[in-house]
Write a structure and sequence with these properties.
With about 210 residues, the chain is an all-alpha fold. The chain is built from nine helices and no strands. The longest helix is centred in the middle third of the chain and has 34 residues.
Length: about 210
């Protein structure tokens, strides 16, 4: 097979990289109002999961279809996560300052509170990692979406760590190593993550047709 033919693995890799670049542009543009970040991220994962499963077609149409379809729920979930993140961040900042200024028994108490908040931050990160890919893949209530994000994230902890690491590495690569990588940014991070998330979501998805067959 010709190295540069459309069917070659090299060409398919280049095509997927070009998709990730374009999806990153769409994600960034649709996230600018801030409150639409949830809908934009859900649309991004809706397409990248299809790419990982070789089911993509017109990625631009698929992105905006998913954006509109999931807008209401994804926006609600994003506002919940944003509010929780701001509250948690403010608490961590205040407790850190109090701990630094305290000695003896008070210092121990604030250390314990800090440990509790760090645990809450871990839970928050797990939920944030899964809530939008799940919203892009399954239908459920907001409460169940948040609960299942945590349960799946802890059940498949290795995948959770890998997906988190992918986003951290991409961020550090852009900020420290090579700033022009921002052209790929979240698009590439989501695409790589989707290859890990796809099987997890398949294993955890409820398929009514399969239940009826049983």
């Amino acid at each position: 097979m010709n190295f540069f033919s459309y069917e070659s693995k090299f060409s398919q890799l280049l095509i997927k990289l070009s998709y990730s670049c374009w999806l990153n542009v769409l994600w960034f543009a649709c996230s600018l109002p801030i409150f639409t970040i949830g809908a934009s991220t859900t649309a991004l994962y809706s397409v990248t999961l299809k790419i990982a499963d070789d089911r993509e077609s017109n990625v631009t149409k698929q992105f905006f279809d998913a954006f509109k379809e999931n807008f209401a729920q994804a926006t609600r979930l994003w506002l919940i996560m944003l509010g929780a993140g701001l509250f948690l961040g403010a608490d961590l900042f205040v407790v850190y300052r109090l701990r630094a200024a305290s000695l003896g028994a008070m210092g121990i108490m604030w250390t314990l509170v800090m440990a509790f908040l760090i645990g809450a931050l871990v839970i928050y990160t797990i939920v944030l990692t899964y809530v939008f890919p799940l919203t892009a893949s399954v239908i459920n209530t907001d409460k169940e979406m948040l609960k299942n994000s945590f349960l799946i994230g802890t059940r498949y902890l290795f995948v959770t760590i890998v997906v988190f690491a992918i986003h951290v590495i991409m961020f550090l690569a852009i900020v420290i190593v090579f700033t022009p990588l921002v052209i790929f940014g979240e698009g590439l991070a989501a695409l790589i993550s989707s290859f890990f998330l796809l099987n997890v979501i398949r294993l955890c998805s409820y398929l009514p047709e399969e239940e009826n067959e049983k």
